[in-house]
Amino acid sequence: MSAVPRVVRIVEVGPRDGLQNEAKIVPTGKKAEFISLLAAAGLKDIEIASFVHPKWVPQLADARELIEQLEPNPNVRYSALVPNMKGLERAIETGIRRIAVFTAASETFNRKNINMGVQESIDVFRPVVDRALKEGMSVRGYVSTCFVCPYEGPVAKEKVAAIVSLLFDLGLDEVSIGDTIGAASPRDVESTCGHLLRLFAVDKLAMHFHDTYGMAIANVYQSLQMGFKIFDSSAGGLGGCPYAPGASGNVATEDLLYLLDRLGIETGVSLQLLRRASHFIGAELGRDLPSRVLKTS
Ligand code: HMG
Ligand code: MG
Questions:
Q1: Between the CA of residue 112 and those of 56, 102, 207, 242, 274, what are the distances in Å?
Q2: Which of 17, 83, 165, 270 is the most buried (most CB within 10 A)?
Q3: Which residues on neighbouring strands pair with residue 98, listed in sequence order?
Q4: Measured between alpha carbons, how far is 30 from 79 in angstroms, rounded to an integer?
Q5: Within 13 Å of residue 152, how many CA atoms lie on the same side as its CB?
Q6: What is the pLDDT of residues 129-154, one digit of tens each?
Q7: What is the DSSP letter of 17?
Q8: Nearest CA to ligand 1 atom 2
Q9: How far apart are CA 280 and CA 42, in angstroms?
């Protein structure tokens, strides 16, 4: 078992995973302001948009306009989801330097989410990743439903490992392990992620926990004990997947940060400045966000 890390990299997914599930359309300028507040808080990896079909996720239909409005910031790496070649072509036009392809460990979820089988999605990604790498972009990957599928139930760790392996074979530099419906417990993390650690380098795997059952922070803590050091989270705990019934937000970046700060683990992120970003987007959406830490002063 690896040692608890001294430094953790947070991948802020609020502007993408967070907003994709919100019915109230946030104006593009407000999204840009939210992202610049996140960057000001010290977040260096921010997933800002998706180049998916605008009808499937209307909130993120303005990806191009949003990227045009972002202030260039050499300290921040922006990324966006890309499901296919059409999405990559749209991404290239904006000049974004990092993309993420996404698939799942369960067939039914993948069909509902991207209208493709799992192997089919890998076949679709192959030329997408080749072209992105040739364009000098870097590519991340996501595997959804790594623990439980909302349609098929518990997912075998061997299945997860097989998909992760196919993604790394395409040339990705990092794969994010998704608990899409927030149903995993620390024991599931120990089992599935323990299996992954026997096969893949810990610094190439990110953990992506949703918080439906209030297990996300417990799962982060479990992952830290196993040596994981890249965590996806979303400001205020915004989030969810529109194609995963019952899925709630990601682990809140504030809650993650509070835990990491208390454990003496460095992130380079300011909790005080992060609160500003979350209050800003909460006010824009007109609702209280689920983060526990955000509710304290
Ligand atoms: P499809 O309908 O099968 O697409 O959708 P198609 O290839 O058959 O094409 C149909 C039409 O869509 C064509 O237009 C294409 O040009 C167009 P037409 O010829 O009919 O005029 N089209 C596109 N337009 C714009 N951008 C594109 C694009 N692709 C095709 N990229 C598709 C397939 C993948 C596009 C669709 O299913 C889709 O957009 N799905 C996205 C769903 C989504 O965004 N889900 C949420 C993100 S995943 C998530 O949240 C999980 C994660 O957080 C990890 C976790 O928590 O587990 C990452
Ligand atoms: Mg997610």
A1: 11, 13, 22, 10, 34
A2: 17
A3: 79, 138
A4: 18
A5: 19
A6: 999 999 999 999 999 999 999 999 99
A7: I
A8: 115
A9: 16
Cross-strand bridge partners of residue 231? 10, 207
First-residue to last-residue Cα distance in the chain: 37
Q: Is 180 in the pocket of ligand 1 (CB under 6 A)?
A: yes
C-alpha 234 to ligand 2 mean position (Å): 9
Residue 240 Cα to ligand 2 middle (Å): 6
Distance in Å, CA 117 to ligand 2 centroid: 19
Number of the ligand 1 atom closest to the C-alpha atom of 87:
31
Report the atom number in ligand 1 closest to the C-alpha of 13.
53
CA–CA separation, 115 and 141 (whole Å): 17
Q: How confident is the model at residue 2 (pLDDT cuts 50, 70, 90)?
A: low
The whole-angstrom separation of Cα 221 and Cα 260 is 9
- What is the residue extent of each domain of the chain? 9-296
62-97, pLDDT tens digit by residue? 999 999 999 889 999 999 999 999 999 999 999 999
Give me the DSSP letters along 47-67.
Answer: EEEE-S-TTT-GGGTTHHHHH
- Which CATH fold would you assign to the domain 9-296? TIM Barrel (3.20.20)
Reply yes or no on whether 193 is catalytic. no
Q: What is the pTM of this model?
A: 0.97
Residue environment code for 223-257, b if the CB has 16+ CB neighbours within 10 A, otherwise e: bbebbbbbbbbbbbbbbbbbbbeebbbbbbbbbbb
Amino acid code (one letter) for 199:
L
For residues 211 and 253, the answer to whether their CB atoms sit within 8 Å is: no
- Give me the residue label for tokens 């947070």: 10
Q: Which ligand is nearest to the CA of 109?
A: 1
Question: Does residue 84 have its Cβ closer than 6 Å to ligand 1?
Answer: yes
* Residues in contact with 23: Cβ distance below 8 Å, sequence separation at least 6, in sequence order: 59
